[in-house]
Amino acid sequence: MTKIRIVGSTNKAWRIWAKSLGEKVGSDREADIVAMIRTFWWLVHIFTCFMIIVHNGRNLGWW
Q1: 10-32 burial by CB neighbour count: b if 16+ within 10 A, else e?
Q2: What is the mean pLDDT of residues 9-19?
Q3: How far apart are CA 59 and CA 51, in angstroms?
């Protein structure tokens, strides 16, 4: 019973995350693929911003 609840909450979390990334595109399978690509792009963006902040912090002598 617990396993079903975890899977259900994971599906709900994925659905909410995918909706937060933008409009649904195509069928459910296509929408999942698009959401994965958008998630990857989001992670690259966050990592890049983090590296820019670290670089500037080192240049300014903050650490």
Answers
A1: eeeeeeeebeebeeeeeeeeebb
A2: 87
A3: 12
Q: Is the pLDDT of residue 60 over 90?
A: yes
Q: Indicate the pTM of the whole model.
A: 0.70
Neighbouring residues of 42: CB distance < 8 A, sequence distance ≥ 6: 21
Contact 25, 38 (CB under 8 A): no
- Domain of 57 in residue numbering reads as 29-62
Say if 48 falls within a structural domain: yes
pLDDT band for position 4 (50/70/90)? Answer: low
